[in-house]
Design brief:
The chain has about 190 residues and is α+β, with helices and mostly antiparallel strands. It has 2 domains: about 40 residues, GTP Cyclohydrolase I, Chain A, domain 1; about 140 residues, GTP Cyclohydrolase I, domain 2, CATH 3.30.1130. It has 7 helices and 7 strands; from the N terminus they run αααββββαβαβαβα. The strands form 2 sheets. It has a 5-stranded mixed β-sheet, sandwiched between helices. Strands 1-4 form a two-stranded antiparallel sheet. Helix 1 crosses helix 3 and helix 4 crosses helix 5. The longest helix is centred in the last third of the chain and has 16 residues. It is elongated and about 65 Å long. The termini are far apart.
Length: about 190
């Protein structure tokens, strides 16, 4: 497993502070490079974890109807500007052969995948692919709604705007009625 190089991060942050004209010997800034390096260890810890490990537990419960786990809050970092995006994720799946997975597994996988520099579209697809490959459901739909600070703090400066992405696998891919039902349940 590749480990983060805290020394390189500290040096890079020091250089950024100097480049923007900040006094790096100022009391409030003095320990910033070290604090940022420690923060990056946490924010990017998902780079070194496989989200498939979150789905090691399943149960036989003879349930083959829709399961929806919704409104799971998350935050991640945009790979284009290294600023946060945050929002809610929703997971809908139809178990196969009565095998269900623990509902907390969705939150765990979301936490792993969110702790990477990325774009929301890839995050959504990664989660859907992970669930499809590990849980092996009849169908899966992942919906992510997020506000991107790169659109709020800079550029177009439009606070409150949201981006919604979906990824659909299995039987739900061609079932528009089921997808509509899921979206309706998400927004109730």
């Amino acid at each position: 497993m590749k480990k983060m190089n805290n020394e390189k991060i500290k040096n890079a942050v020091q250089m950024i502070l100097e480049a923007i004209g900040e006094d790096t010997s100022r009391e409030g800034i003095l320990d910033t490079p070290e604090r940022v390096a420690k923060m990056y260890e946490e924010l990017f810890s998902g780079l070194h974890t496989d989200p498939k490990e979150c789905f090691s537990t399943s149960f036989c419960d003879d349930h083959e109807e829709l399961v929806l786990v919704k409104d799971i809050a998350f935050h991640s970092i945009c790979e284009h500007h290294l600023v946060p995006f945050y929002g809610k994720a929703h997971f809908a799946y139809i178990p196969k052969d009565g095998r269900v997975t623990g509902i907390g597994n969705f939150a765990k996988a979301l936490e792993v995948v969110a702790k990477r520099p990325q774009i929301q579209e890839r995050m959504t697809s990664t989660l859907a692919n992970t669930i499809d490959e590990t849980v092996d459901p009849i169908g899966i739909m992942v919906v992510i709604e997020a506000e991107h600070m790169c659109m709020t703090m800079r550029g177009v400066k439009k606070p409150g705007s949201k981006t919604v992405t979906t990824a659909v696998r299995g039987s739900l891919k061609n079932d528009s009625a089921a997808r509509s039902e899921i979206l309706s349940l998400i927004h109730q």
